[in-house]
Amino acid sequence: MSQVTVVNHPLVQHKLTRMRDKTTSTKTFRALMRETATLLCYEVTRDLPMDKVEIETPVAKASAYEIAGKKLVFAPILRAGLGMCEGMLDLVPSARVAHIGLYRDHETLEAIEYYFKAPEDISGRLTIVVDPMLATGHSAIAAISRLKHYGVTNLRFVCLLAAQAGVDALREAHPDVPIWTAAIDEKLNEHGYIVPGLGDAGDRTFGTR
Ligand SMILES: O=P(O)(O)OC[C@H]1O[C@H](OP(=O)(O)OP(=O)(O)O)[C@H](O)[C@@H]1O
Ligand SMILES: O=c1cc[nH]c(=O)[nH]1
Ligand SMILES: [Mg+2]
């Protein structure tokens, strides 16, 4: 069974608290989402394999390290994942991006796909699925299933906030996919929102409600 990593770095926790606060403006929320995603990206990529290369500095020849293999893919789940993806691209600007359009049906809470566009050669690349919220887990499970169907085998999932139910569901459906999150909240309410959570991440990022 894959690992679940809670990133409890003080900067991440401080920024998450500001995002949870309902008085935080859309502008600040969006900025915090981007900054927090950069910090989470640092953790998710901590154990990437490296190659030793020979280079020449202005002073001498040297053996040094660089990230091995093909460029990463970030796979944001629309819409809210876009805000996080910006912050991840700040740290890994050469990463490729696979967009996965999903929304939750308000009645059934099932994930409905409306868009999918991935790099043609994604199957050989480490793909990091990005979505701030892991609530029931339906969206993350559907996104990862779609990517696996497309041939992707090396996957990670990163979110800002999870509910324990979502973590359990995702681990059950995709036990090979490790998870990173800044916090795991207690429960979901009757509408499938994380409690205490931070509300609707898409609406708060884009100011739609
Ligand atoms: O774990 P789940 O129960 O599937 O819930 C999480 C999903 O809900 C939100 O998206 P939403 O459907 O609100 O779409 P949006 O980003 O377009 O607002 C969020 O960004 C996740 O994708
Ligand atoms: O609390 C939640 C649950 C799902 N999606 C959100 O944006 N927030
Ligand atoms: Mg939403």
TrEMBL record:
The keyword Cell inner membrane does not apply. One of its GO terms (molecular function) is uracil phosphoribosyltransferase activity. Residues 6-208 form the Phosphoribosyltransferase domain. SUPFAM superfamilies: PRTase-like. It catalyses: UMP + diphosphate = 5-phospho-alpha-D-ribose 1-diphosphate + uracil. Binds 1 Mg(2+) ion per subunit. The magnesium is bound as Mg-PRPP. Uracil binds at residues 194, 199-201. This is Uracil phosphoribosyltransferase.
